[in-house]
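Would you mind writing out the residues of a protein together with its fold in token form for me to study?
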Amino acid sequence: MSEIEVVVTVHPNPNVKKIILPMFKKAKVENIKLVPALDYISLVQLMNKSYLILTDSGGIQEEAPGLGKPVLVFRNVTERPEGVDAGVVKMVGTSFKRIVEETARLLDDQTEYEKMAKAVNPYGDGKASERIAKLIYEYEQNSEKIQEEHVEIKNNEIDYEKISIVMPTYNGASHIQKSIESCLNQTYRNTELIIVDDGSIDDIKTVVDKFNDNRIKYFKHNINLGLPAALNTGFEKTTGGYLTWTSDDNFYKPDALEIMVAYLKNHSDVDFVYSDFYIVNEKEKIVENYIPALPETLKKYSCVGASFLYTRKVYEKIGGYDINYFLAEDYDHFLKIYTNFKMAKISKSLYYYRSHSNSLTEKYGDYMVSRVCNEVRLKNFSNHFKLERSLKGRNFAIAVKDYYLAENYKEARKYIAPAILNNLFYCLTYKDKNGDREVLSAMLDLIFGIKSIKKIRFLKRKILEQLGLIKKVSKLVSVVICTKDRLQEVLNCITSILKQSHLPKEIIIVDSSLNNNILLSAIERRFKTELSIKNINFKFYISQSNVAKQSNLGIKNSSGDIVILLDDDVILENNFIKEMLNIFDMKSINKVGAVMGNIINEKRENTFSYRNIIKYLFFMPKYGNGKFRISSMPTTPTGLNKVKAVEFVTRGVTAYNRKVFNEFLFDESLCDIYGAAEDVDFSYRIMKKYTNYYTPYAKCYHYEVSNKDVGSELKRIKYFQNYQYLFYKNIPRAPIRKITFRIALFGLKNRADLLPLPQIMALLMEQLFGNKVTSIVRKYYRKMMLMFKPLVSVK
């Protein structure tokens, strides 16, 4: 083999170098040459001079066959199967024996070598540029003729009287039938309905197939690509002269499209029309008649709503939806339309918008939606139209706040001067929903650096490290995500993990879905390359539907010194892991049991609100200082503004010391309906030996999605049962504890915080004195309410 020369290009990643360089240095093989990572031209020249290429690179799998070089790939699966099918690429896996055998075969057998080298390249023959140049030349020579032919073909395909309705759907089988019926039953009959199934795991196709109507066209993505991508797929398939889209859970009035298309035909200067619409609840009862603002208001916020129709020339000029603005893709699209076409509003409700817990707005929260909308405004007001000075300043100020909260200080500083110059009043007076002057405090910190507590905390840690009084905690972090039937949420969670300023050593998914392969394949398709580049191990386990069992399985298979347990519907801000580790640095790691992060989209109840007062009186779980109440019920520290030692930590946003799991695991008997109070039990047990902490600096969003197989009433009952079990398992039976615990159980069982005070008193009397006395009280209570009914009636 001495006549063979092997050239190895070493990846610039220091973790790769750390393994590769010592290994080859130790081997001392003269005909192996290590070279640093090459630029593209040098790499192509090296491949062209080579005889055979061995790689795990996806890009080289495409490049090398164009040079007539056989390629052996160190993988068992490839995202480029065309090369394998054509015979120019062969998968050899990572088995040493197989790699040697296949390499020797190509070196020794000229027939085998020629067979691969001269196979038809599925990625092209290298002459595409020549063909493109020739076509451009022919186009310029015959532009008029080609243009006429193009228009003729286009006119034959497009029916300018037809309305094309695009309906994207993702796991929307429960409501889509009503939506489809409303589209097909329009009084304007010349329509087509294009349904785009964005990788749903429920059976959308079965529902669609019930409609025997040739106006329906059905397309499906193999994986969930998100709403903007689904819309773009749908609009590419349209053949109508008028376009719109509707959600799978909303529905039209029968004459909605006829009214809107008539308006466009009668007003030739208008290309986009929208209308008022009804907001309905889960039972389709109207709760609000929503009246959108005039088009000019788009400069301030998205006002169009869900009922609209526009001409095809709008689509031909504006194009599709921007996939980078998920949650605000429609606002970005409307702003582009506003700056290029005339828009108008019809003052008539033509549409029913369904408000329910699984809608995108409810799922992701107003804060996240408004944040993306602010980004859209920033992009559009400078590029598309001139805003009034004060409005421009307002948008700059919001940009300062948003970038500051995202800890992108470089971008935030860019907008300080424009914000102050254009709208100083807004910068000084703006308050958020909690009354905090976020813009002003952000600007002061960016200008003067007054975030002193955090800086002192950091300096203190560094000084103590230098003096040897504390040891820097090992930075090996494992992240465990427990999930069930939440594909998109898991993908969003992993995306936020991969953006962390301190990356974990490994990500472990423990799945209890019915079809585990869908989640695994989606993760591999989207993140396999990035996980490899960032040197993060990925593990996937299957478990029973029990969050305690899933957590224990993930913990047992993790190897990090710090184990972070996350719910699948959590999204982390970029410094979440770093801030968690800072607490372990500051405190003695041997004494820290767990550190809980700050869920910033979860707002604390007003101290003097009715619900909070009732919870306080009944010793029920509530927001507080993170301590267990005398009734043994926990209080949640979320929303506190300083690092604090606590007793209770929520499992789904918490980092745990590895030493804790050597002694304690989650109680699996508590989770026979997936999960209920398992973290309460775990916190109570570990706090006796370790100190738990809460940090407001490790920020995240928790978009709680309910489990479809667990009703809210069943979960409430299970919580009630589990708290009883926990009390007798963990709590010393002092008389005062027993009494307060019984009161708390009464409040939980009867949902006291949701009941009016007279009804609570009646239930208490029934508990204390029996039904006879209570029935008398209820009788007089009803009479009293009838007397006051005219005074409290609501239209």
Q: What stands out?
A: The longest strand covers residues 343-354.
